[in-house]
Design a protein that fits this description.
The chain is mainly α. It has helices at residues 5-8, 11-20, 37-50, 57-69, 73-91. Helix content is 62%, strand content 0%. It is globular and about 45 Å long. The model has no long low-confidence stretch (mean pLDDT 86).
Length: 96
């Protein structure tokens, strides 16, 4: 999870939910989209949505949903692999 201030208020609750399921919560540095695959996903979605013009809120909601559905599973795997690669570079003090 990123270390954005919006997550601070409920971080104890979120940590507990994650740990209760047998996982460990790892917080990423603030403003580190390269380490967070969801940021890469949203960047892809935003590019698709920006290409459209909207007449109303429903058009926007529909386009966002369609853009999310249009991201191939392989792209998601690539986003994750990219984040893992960048994380390893950070651990090795290699420039990214």
């Amino acid at each position: 999870m990123d270390n954005s201030p919006i997550h601070d208020k409920k971080s104890g609750e979120i940590d507990k939910m994650i740990e209760d399921r047998g996982y460990k919560c790892v917080y990423l540095p603030k403003y580190s989209p390269e380490l967070n695959p969801i940021e890469q996903f949203w960047s892809s979605v935003k590019r698709k949505v920006r290409r459209s013009q909207f007449g109303n809120t429903e058009d926007l909601k529909t386009r966002i949903s369609e853009a999310c559905d249009a991201v191939p599973a392989q792209h998601m795997k690539n986003f994750i692999q990219h984040s893992v690669d960048v994380f390893e570079k950070c651990l090795n003090d290699t420039p990214i």
